[in-house]
Amino acid sequence: MKKKVFVFFPDGVGLRNFAFTKFKNIGEQMGFDITYWNNTIFSLKDNLGFNEVKIEDHSVHPLLPIYSRARKRAELNVSRDKFNEDVYLTYKFPFNYKGIKNSFKSFYTRWLIALYSSEKGIVKLRKKINKLERSTSKYRYCKAQLEQHKPDLVFCTTQRATQSISALLAAKDLGIPTVAFVYSWDNVPKAMQVVETDYYFVWSDLMKAQVLQYYPFVNEKQVFVTGTPQFEPHYDTNLRQSRADFFKDYNLDVNKKYICYSGDDETTSPLDQYYLEDLANAVRNLNNKGENLGVIYRKCPVDFTSRYNTVIEANKDIIEVLDPIWKQVGNQWNQVLPTPEDFKMLYNVCEHSEFVTNVCSSTVFDFVAHNKPCIYYNYEQPQLKKGIRDIGQNYKYVHFRSMPSNKAAVFCTDKNDLESLVKQILDAKLSNVNECKKWYEIVVGKTPTKASKAIWKTIDNLLMKP
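== UDP-glycosyltransferase ==
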């Protein structure tokens, strides 16, 4: 008899990994009965023809946002004290004191943080959050769905969504095994593990060690290294277009060499547009010296700002805008959802660009999968002033310590060096590819093409346990 697995989407961030890759096909070929337990407003049945059970009740306890924020800050305080490092304080967002309601929430949150900033306190805080969520209508709603459909296991596609707490509690209370996939390479040190499940699937040995380091209530037997499906499409040669066809589809000049500028969200890089401008200026200078270069600007899919427009308009002879093929289905960042077509676009942007340049983005890994270099900007812009976040702190984050050396990316630490670095990469005199491949293996794991299969094989092994 086929084992029935609920693949749970608490929000849209997991769609790219677990709906639009070959993840489902591989699972079905291995004999699983797969149903998507869908908490998003994207219909997997209507758009992709998948079996789905829709969650229509999206209620959370009114106090959950306050307790969840307190939990995160308490965990960061404990990490600061435990490891004697202030880097954990940089993961915190400022409190909001605008208006009576926001002020009350902030003061209440700070009281909880003061009360629970210890390892024992965090356990109590998590138990309190679980108690709150068990009291919601969504908990009862999800429990009824699980009782009706009787899955053998619930696989949650991200560990960071508060919308998943009540649903996973319902599963655990019914004795259904639960798994959380740790979604991103930077999530563990940032205290973004919202849920508690029976098992955790992670990208690499590095991430497993981090889960055990930061979450003492998790034991080693609960954590499995599976890899991530995130990079599997880069090895699917069926997505590859010829250079001529790709350039024709996006109205690019076949005589030019293109450099990809991969945009960041406003929080990570608030002055990102000026780095794009610096690249355009460097390209213009090189073109004046005989090169024939252009820039492909691919924005961050969840960046809704107009901050790049002036730079793009002033350099429209150089910059070509290739927006990610994502669909906005709501106003929140996690309601901007990827489409399967974007895999093909990203594959070919990587394949047919000379290299990528950005501020600390994980696209360094997308491009190294195509043997392409990356320049990371790491200098201040003159527009930096009090109240604007300096991008330099990004490279001090814990996840950047996984770099095997500072040669895993080409760091531009001075605007005046950018033109020279671009030229050296174009002339094959400078590259980070070999060192970045070592970094890629540390972060992503040793078998980036086999993650989906590894996830299903691990699920199969867990279901065989008595």
